[in-house]
Amino acid sequence: MIDGQVDLDRMFHALSDRSRRGMIDRLGRGPASVTELAAPLSVALPTVLKHLQVLESSGLVFSEKSGRVRTYHLQQDALAAVERWVEQRKTRWTTAFGRLDQLLADEPETLPE
Amino acid sequence: MIDGQVDLDRMFHALSDRSRRGMIDRLGRGPASVTELAAPLSVALPTVLKHLQVLESSGLVFSEKSGRVRTYHLQQDALAAVERWVEQRKTRWTTAFGRLDQLLADEPETLPE
User: Fold this and answer.
1) Cβ distance B6 to B79 under 8 Å?
2) What is the pLDDT of residue A105?
């Protein structure tokens, strides 16, 4: 994590793949091993590992190794940064539209010929 | 737009680049020409056009051509799909945690030796 922007790049990139979003959904129901995460996907193990690497480097998930088993966990508040980014824009745009509505309401009711 | 999943792939991909997010912020303040969108970026025009193509194919922005000038606009409710996706997970996870809390609260207060 270098700065907020870099995180968002990685986070949005991590979310831009259906299989990775599926893994996030699976981890939302509890920690899981690579085997469990690979089960619903019809892709080769290296692809699964690559997806997990992308998810982990984005900060959305983390893993821990116990013996020979690596278990993946959803990061707490995983989507908070994405949610904040969206909310900031929504507020900003709503305010901008509100100001536009106000401006239009304040205009004298004369239409160009 | 083939189905919801395809859109989310493209939408998250479109958002995974700082310059493209900057363009979305610019368009949040009102429609803009390619020149206006390129102004704050220190990248070549073909790169700007590629960014705009990615944004347009994601459904986040649209453009219209009047004479020789193409103007870009933010799509209404541009981030609604992303927001909905995040909100669904938040609700689901909160509910899951709530059930876990309830289960723990219902447990008899005996700790293993």
Assistant:
1) no
2) 78
